[in-house]
TrEMBL record:
Its cofactor is Mn(2+). This is Phosphopentomutase. InterPro entries: Alkaline_phosphatase_core_sf, DeoB, Metalloenzyme, Phosphopentomutase_DeoB_cap_sf. Keywords: Cytoplasm, Isomerase, Manganese, Metal-binding. SUPFAM superfamilies: Alkaline phosphatase-like, DeoB insert domain-like. Mn(2+) 1 binds at D10, D345, H346. GO terms for cellular component: cytosol. Coiled coil: none annotated. Mn(2+) 2 binds at D304, H309, H357. It catalyses: 2-deoxy-alpha-D-ribose 1-phosphate = 2-deoxy-D-ribose 5-phosphate; alpha-D-ribose 1-phosphate = D-ribose 5-phosphate. Belongs to the phosphopentomutase family. The keyword Isomerase applies. The lineage of its organism: Bacteria, Pseudomonadati, Pseudomonadota, Alphaproteobacteria, Hyphomicrobiales.
Length: 405
């Protein structure tokens, strides 16, 4: 029986979203701008990488061709030749340019409602929400209370947090309530506990996630976030591909933050790891373990969290090259009936203003030893990805999207 390996390269957009202007993102292109910057020598970093962006394996799977289809030109260093598999472009119908919206839609469930957001003002959180949170969590107060980048705000407020015991609460253009706290001074379990309380209070506001952002270090210069991030997320409004696979008695391997994104629904095996390379290792391990008919679903978070939000072009380029380098390991492990799908959930152009996601189309690269080559065009919804996976796995069609296989 066939298996599907579905890999989301978090934030790896390829530009060209027709509604980008409504988000202030017209012209944003994560891949395109990284490749253009690298071609001009702007993504060089000693000890990491130099020169043009080199992605031969992704290119062979159709990345350059998909990028050209999406934004009208082939990024420097890539080609229009898709040597194997099917390639195309995913367009999102859900309004949020965030991780849950992108992932739910990929798994066949576009988001039918508007998320709640906190305003671009200070303080950003409603006073009654914070009063109730502080009371129930037994806190001396909170710090932050604004839109911020997570690494910047711990440098700014981390020392005061240690001194006062007040957690750092912040948000972004995404539907999130994030809480940063020190792993030992504040305590990791205590951080998770107060996140659960915050989730109960923010869920009625349709805030998608409360995210625990633990960090270590003793000063602004040495603070560092750890791999113990945890997301407390609203559950998808309908059964996703994961639920449908589980319901049919299949194994569903959720690697990295996948399980959190679907609030654990439809997951039979949860594998955690910190960093793209460890996530890659877990994916290979899952391929060893997975029975016939399994879905292996992995999110590669570093592209977004470590490089996109941090507007780090060289870092993003280096991470793409490291990922590309390992693709042959997955292909070597594939059985004849296995299907590999590489895609993304939104953009996060590291050359763009600010530190938030960018509204973009995403690449869809599909490979199986038993699948012919071809183009699947620009898909009207990411849900086509989930429907194609469902069809490959022999599951009944869902309510949204159409299979391209
Ligand atoms: O700046 P950091 O804390 O990485 O937060 C980013 O990550 C959040 C969730 O992935 C996004 O909403 C964005 O704000
Ligand atoms: Mn994401
Ligand atoms: Mn993000």
């Amino acid at each position: 029986m066939p298996r599907v390996i579905l890999a989301v390269l978090d934030s790896f957009g390829i530009g060209g979203a027709p509604d980008a202007e409504a988000y202030g993102d017209e012209g944003a292109n994560t891949l395109g701008h990284i490749a253009e910057t690298a071609a001009k020598g702007g993504a060089d970093r000693d000890g990491l990488r130099q020169g043009p962006l080199i992605l031969p394996n992704l290119d062979a799977l159709g990345l350059g061709a998909a990028a050209a289809l999406s934004a009208g030109k082939i990024p420097p260093g890539l080609s229009a030749i898709a040597a194997g598999g099917r390639f195309g472009v995913g367009r999102e119908v859900s309004k949020g340019k965030d991780t849950p919206s992108g992932h739910w839609e990929i798994a066949g469930v576009p988001v039918p409602f508007d998320w709640g957001y906190f305003p671009q003002e200070e303080p950003t959180f409603p006073p009654e929400l914070i009063a109730e949170f502080v009371k129930r969590a037994g806190l001396p107060g909170i710090l932050g209370n604004k839109h911020a980048s997570g690494t910047t705000i711990i440098a700014e407020l981390g020392e005061e947090h240690i001194r006062t015991g007040k957690p750092i609460c912040y948000t972004s253009v995404d539907s999130v309530f994030q809480i940063a706290a020190h792993e030992s001074h504040f305590g990791l379990d205590r951080l998770y506990d107060i996140c659960r309380i915050a989730f109960e209070l923010t869920e009625p506001l349709r805030i998608g996630r409360v995210i625990a952002r633990p960090f270590i270090g003793e000063s602004a210069e040495t603070f560092k976030r750890t791999g113990n991030r945890r997301d407390f997320a609203i559950a998808p409004p309908e059964p996703t591909l994961l639920d449908r696979a589980e319901e049919a008695g299949r194994q569903v391997f959720a690697i990295g933050k996948i399980s959190d994104i679907y609030a654990g629904h439809g997951v039979t095996h949860k594998l955690k790891a910190t960093g793209n390379m460890a996530l890659f290792d877990r994916t290979l391990e899952a391929m060893e373990m997975a029975a016939d008919g399994a879905l292996i679903f992995v999110n590669f978070v570093d592209f977004d969290q470590e490089y996109g939000h941090r507007r780090d072009v060289a870092g993003y380029a280096g991470a793409l090259e490291a990922f590309d380098h390992r693709i042959p390991e997955i292909i070597a492990k594939m059985q004849p009936q296995d299907l590999l799908i590489l895609t993304a959930d939104h953009g996060n152009d590291p050359t763009w203003k600010g530190s938030d996601h960018t509204r973009e189309q995403v690449p869809i690269m599909v490979f199986s030893p038993s699948l012919s080559r071809g183009e699947i065009g620009i898909r009207k919804t990411f849900a086509d990805i989930g429907e194609s996976a469902a069809r490959w796995l022999g599951l009944p069609p869902g309510r949204h999207g159409r299979s391209f296989l």
